[in-house]
Design brief:
Blueprint lengths: L7 H11 L14 H4 L6 E3 L8 H8 L4 E3 L5 H4 L7 E2 L7 H14 L3 H15 L1 H12 L7
Parallel strand pairs: 1-2, 2-3
Length: about 140
């Protein structure tokens, strides 16, 4: 797990209670998350409140399968679930949803989803796509790259 916050201590305690503390690494704050993403099996974002999650876009661009809550723009970013999975509203069902997604990663069933996610970020959320959208809004002509 990457990041710090008020839930970190509780998550460490939970890992200990579940007996998975030796399989769970709590890295804390890291300024180099982009370099760590390709080594991840699954990106889970269980936020209760989001806008447009840059962390989600970064995980998708890195080719990591994603599982997120349907808050803010997450559902739109995932194109209705074609580019990743949505956690159920009921948090008590999250462990089952996470297990299901991990199973899909292990069996390779998420490869098509990951490919669609990478393509979606490139087409709709990359720097070039953003610049093109702004230039279209302002009627600017873009110089050749």
């Amino acid at each position: 797990m990457i990041g710090d916050g008020p839930e970190k201590r509780g998550l460490q305690n939970l890992a200990s209670e579940l007996g998975v503390e030796k399989q769970t690494v709590f890295l804390g704050f890291r300024p180099d998350v982009a370099s760590l993403l390709p080594g991840m099996d699954l990106f889970v974002l269980p936020s209760r409140s989001e806008g447009l999650s840059v962390a989600l876009l970064e995980a998708m661009a890195a080719g990591v399968p994603v599982l997120v809550t349907d808050v803010g723009e997450n559902g739109a970013i995932l194109d209705g679930g074609t580019c990743g999975a949505i956690l159920p509203d009921d948090a008590s069902k999250w462990p089952e949803a996470i297990s299901f997604e991990v199973g899909g990663v292990i069996t390779g069933e998420r490869l098509g989803v990951v490919g669609r996610a990478r393509d979606r970020v490139r087409r709709s959320y990359s720097m070039d796509a953003t610049l093109d959208a702004y230039e279209q809004i302002y009627g600017m002509v873009r110089r050749p790259r």
